[in-house]
Amino acid sequence: MAEAWRGIRVTIPSDVRYLGAIRTMVDEACTIAGLPEEDRGEVQLAVQEGCANVIRHCYKNQTGRPIDLRLTFRDDALEIHVDDYGTFVDPSRIQSRDLDDVRPGGLGVHLMRKLMDEVRYSKNAWGGTTLTLVKRLKKGGAKENA
Fold first, then answer.
1. What is the DSSP code (8-state) at residue 78?
2. What is the SS3 assignment for 82-110?
3. Which CATH code is given to the segment(s) 7-136?
4. Most C-beta atoms within 10 A of its C-beta, which of 24, 39, 66, 110?
5. CA dihedral 95, 134, 81, 92 (to 10 degrees)
């Protein structure tokens, strides 16, 4: 028999006012997954940046468009999928700006790659883009049963 899916699914509108709620939900998911406190802020920031990029770049700051989040509790990691319903973006075109170019914005991709163990982009069933973020559990860390 297949193991039951363990996770959280939520849809938020493409509106920056919801990013704080996403951070709170992700923090709770990190606790359930058994991630240590020092990793929780990193995961929160990476997911926030991913959602902000969908709002800014995919939906061109249009509010009310759906962003689906799926947080899956694996035995060895927390895996987060951020799905949009826009047009698929070729992963080779997703770049962070040069770090020497000091100005606000444009570092979301760099931050996600630095903070997470895996960052992947793929085409989803709706023709949009799925961002997958993975944070592995450190060996020897406690893990609650979800």
1. E
2. EECCCCCCCHHHCCCCCCCCCCCCCCHHH
3. 3.30.565.10
4. 39
5. 20
Count other C-beta atoms under 10 Å from residue 35's C-beta: 22
Identify the sign of the CA torsion 56, 117, 126, 17. negative
Question: How far is it, in rounded angstroms, from Cα 146 to Cα 123?
Answer: 29
How far is residue 133 from each of residues 29, 71, 72, 77, measured CA to CA in Å? 14, 9, 11, 10
Q: Is the dihedral of CA 5, 143, 135, 30 positive or negative?
A: positive
Specify the pTM. 0.84
The tokens for 136 are 């592995």
pLDDT higher than 90, residue 69: yes
